[in-house]
Amino acid sequence: MPLVAASAVRKQIAAGTPDAIYLLQGDDDLEKVALAHEFETLVEEGLRAFNVERIHTGDVASGDRLAGAVDGLIAAARTLPMMAARRIVIVLQADALLMPKRESEAASRALDELEAYLKAPEVQTTVVLVAASVDKRGRLYKQLVKLASIVECGVLESPADAERWVRNRVAAAGAQIEAAGSRLLADRCGTDLKRLRNDVDRLLLYALGQKTITIDDVRQMVGPAALQDEWAMTNAIEGGDAAAALRQLALLLEAGAAPEKVLGQLGWLVRAKLPMLAPATLRGAVEAVFRTDLDLKRSAGDPRVLLERLVVELCAARRSPRAALR
């Protein structure tokens, strides 16, 4: 099977239609554990003691122990759910199970039994294997690729994924973060996990001892000094992405950028870029910038609203070069 995105797995969980077997892999342990935990929501909270089982296989070091772990896994998976539609079996540190360190007759038999289960899983059970690194040349991994849903954790695909990652990371540190704070971090870093991890680590150090991290804390740590790409807004306009351009405009203004400076950037974009990108809209764009400049000087409206209107117009011109701005 092809790789499955974590967002697609969450949709399956929300719809109550999970696959029979999943392998959660990757270096982001927090994301793997958080996603594995979400499978538990397939069972009503009051029934989880009977229908959710967690198995740790990190201490499997011999053929006999491997055989015992496999027997326990298969027994748990073959047990019918009690007063519920589905049973969940989560196998943590499954690396040792999938890549035994020692070859032996007992280990070989255990792998045969596990492979047989993969080929004929229990239809009322979802088995979630959580592993860090798996030898993709191994026999079991090759079977999992054919028979299971492989999920690469730690890959952020959208701002919503970034916000979720921030909340999970802060929760793992024993705190919580205001929704507006996680949103600001996600808007600032996008899906760049390295930047996001660095900013959250700095934020946790800054707010050490606090139970709740506020948006003001976020602004103090990643506000004006953290705005690494002052031209992200104009880059988004060049791509015709109004939503991203508006987010970057908000970051610029919240970081303290003067409306006149922002307008200067937009004016530069119109003069330097638009003649090549959308020459048919150049005259209308110049007039829109001129109109916004007059409105700002006359205080003819909220500066943020005036700039947002201009950004939307320029994005529309970029997407539809034949359209004229008014």
Describe the structure.
By secondary structure, the chain is of the alpha/beta class. The protein has three domains: 3-152, 3-Layer(aba) Sandwich (Rossmann fold), CATH 3.40.50; 159-226, Orthogonal Bundle (Helicase, Ruva Protein, domain 3), CATH 1.10.8.60; 232-319, Zinc Finger, Delta Prime, domain 3. 57% of the residues lie in helices and 10% in strands. It is built from 17 helices and eight strands. The protein has helices at residues 6-15, 29-38, 48-51, 63-78, 95-98, 105-119, 139-147, 159-172, 179-189, 193-206, 215-222, 232-238, 242-254, 259-272, 274-277, 282-297, 303-319, and strands spanning 3-4, 21-25, 52-56, 87-92, 125-130, 149-152, 176-177, 212-213. The protein has a six-stranded parallel β-sheet with strand order 1-6-2-5-4-3, sandwiched between helices. Helix 13 (242-254) packs antiparallel against helix 17 (303-319), helix 14 (259-272) runs parallel beside helix 17 and helix 16 (282-297) runs antiparallel to helix 17 (303-319). It is elongated. The two termini are 51 Å apart.
Name the descriptors.
two-stranded parallel sheet, single chain, disordered C terminus, 17 helices, elongated, 8 strands, 326 residues, Rossmann fold, Helicase, Ruva Protein, domain 3, alpha/beta, Zinc Finger, Delta Prime, domain 3, 6-stranded parallel β-sheet
